[in-house]
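**User:** Once you have settled down, spend some time on the protein underneath, comparing sequence with C-alpha cells, and judge whether sequence predicts the C-alpha cells.
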Amino acid sequence: MKHDRAFGGSEGELEFTANAIYYVTKDKTDGRTWLMDRDVVSVWSDDPYRLEVRAYDNNRREFSRTGTYKFDLKEKLNPEFYRELKLRLYGLETNNEVIR
C-alpha cells in the first residue's frame, strides 16, 4: 500500500489490532501508531482501494490538531472488515453486543 502525500509518499503496510492502527514503513519518519481510543477521529473509504485515517497529530503545541492520512491499497478493502472497524471505533452495537 502507499501513503499519499502532497510531494510523493511512502510504501508500507497498515496493521490493525483491537486497540491501534499501525503504519509500518522502512522510512521511520513516515511510520505512525494511532491508538483507537485516543488518537483516531475517523476512518473513511469511498473507494475499495482507498482508506483515510483522520487522527490527532500529537503535536505538543496543538493538542487538538488532526491530520488526514490517505492510503492507496493494493488489495480491495474487505467491506465486512471496514464495517467492523467503524463499529469498533465508534462504539456501536452489532448483534446486541458492543464491539471493543
About this structure: Helices lie at 79-90.
